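1st attempt posting a full record on here, be nice pls
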Amino acid sequence: MSDSVNTPEAPHPAHAPGASIRRTRAKGEPRFPDGPKADPAGSHFERRIRSFQPRRSRVTAGQADALQRLWPKWGFDIDGRHRLDLAEFFGNDNPVVLEIGFGMGEATATMAAADPATNILAVDVHTPGQGNLLNLADQQGLTNVRVGNGDAIILLREMLAPDSLDGLRVYFPDPWPKKRHHKRRLIQPAFLSLAATRLKPGAVLHCATDWEPYAEQMLEVLTAHPDFENTRADGGFAPRPPFRPLTRFEGQGLDKGHVVNDLLFRRVQHGDRPGAQRSDQPSTGA
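the predicted structure (as tokens):
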């Protein structure tokens, strides 16, 4: 798919909502001059196995408009060069939950609207989804959403202070189903060690997936990790909590017989578990 800007080069007839407008960019011209950068961290950090695959797909006129208008206000690039002051960033001291991978943002907007006293730091690399979430936040008058562009590992490691997050949500991450790609899965011991340093004691890591083998791996890895404990007394999967919306995609999967598993694990206080050890500088090869 061409990585072209979907804004017009000359006056044109009115377009229907959601329509895509395309023109060819000059070489080196940024896709959205006031919006998210293509590679915000650049080559400033070590190369590693990525748990995500950047997607380049068509941006609608509404999404492009939202990126141009709202990115300077509610968006940020994950460049790893400064630490975020979350209270200053959101303009209040409300709890902050990090959501990694929000797709088109419908569920994120629904959760933000239902709980305005909780700030959501939503991170993804999908440009249309970034624009769509900004558009939804604008239309619904949401002030508790900020949209991050780039690698969540760099955000956690370089830009967030220890014990700064009140929760972490990872909904339907890429399952990387082929065995040779399992090393790319996000929920791995090293990622959990890093996340634990940024989560406050008692904060909940909430994962959901419709890929059963990945769900089993998540449960195994989280259960074995000393910094997390299952909120389920039986040590198994949790029912979908009311605050996680049922998305259209998820509903279609359930209609086809797919099984969706939720996992809710609490970050334990250091020392709560016998022999538990934490490091403030964990390996980050997720």
